[in-house]
Design a protein that fits this description.
Radius of gyration: 25 Å
Shape: globular
Oligomer: single chain
Strand order of the largest sheet: 4-5-6-3-7
CATH topology of the largest domain: Rossmann fold
Helix content: 25-40%
Number of strands: 7
Length: about 300
Amino acid sequence: MQDNERQSENPARSESDNICKKCGGTGMYVYMQLASEYAKENGKPHLYGDKDWMVPVGRKCPFCNGGFADDVNKARKSADIPTSFYDKRLKDFDWDIYVGENGTREDTRALRQGVQAFIDRFKEFEEVNMGFYIWSRTKGSGKTFLASCICNELMYAQAIKTRFVSASELIDISTSGDKNANDESKRNPMKLLNECKLLVIDDIGQKMTGSEWLDDILFKLLDYRMTNKRMTLFTSNCPINELRFNERTIDRVNRLSMPCKIPEICVRDKEVNEARASLIGRLGLNKKPDTDDGGENKSMPV
């Protein structure tokens, strides 16, 4: 490896965003090396005989020593993003799927640009402590999916410490502390939600039991995050002014986020139907079988 690839001469991370500019936060750096040299270094036979070829070699990034990738992995493991969206990135979110029953595609350009700006210019949003309130009244419209994609993009880009929690879990979390535990996060689990750089509160608009208790817990949580400039994302099935909370809690939600309206189209049903149709097609179940009963047997309906 050449001297000009050493960390001391090429600072890996930008002081402003802490992203490794060489590996893009992956922790791996790919460069070209002679096959014979690679074989010798790794105790492997040289496979190219008398000829020697340059081959791509991937190693732990020499500029950040792979450390940023470790930070990303730690952030993702502790984020509690829903399992079905754990590996989803913004490229996986299909903005063109929002097509109404009349075949008209919803115009999502402004929404798409806003989300991309939030990711690309996160620090500017952070300076004014302004997150997103992602909402639509339709179940399965992609609210949680989109919030998960945003979190993953920010964790990969900056290893931001993120927590993902359903509003219905807040009461249980607030009472689950073990005062005898050695780990502070187990003694006071709400501290993780207070302190994390980015918090997602999922499904904040649902009707829940113990609403007065939850209202108090939520107000304290959001008030702390507002006072200490911690970023918050919300998903909901109603606009902010229809939330079933005390005015002071609604005020905190309003101050911490800007509305991000998702089209009123259930993409979950579309995805399920497409997956079902694809499976039936691969298995050949959509074809009428050859029968001797006058064609009474029919193909499986899609």
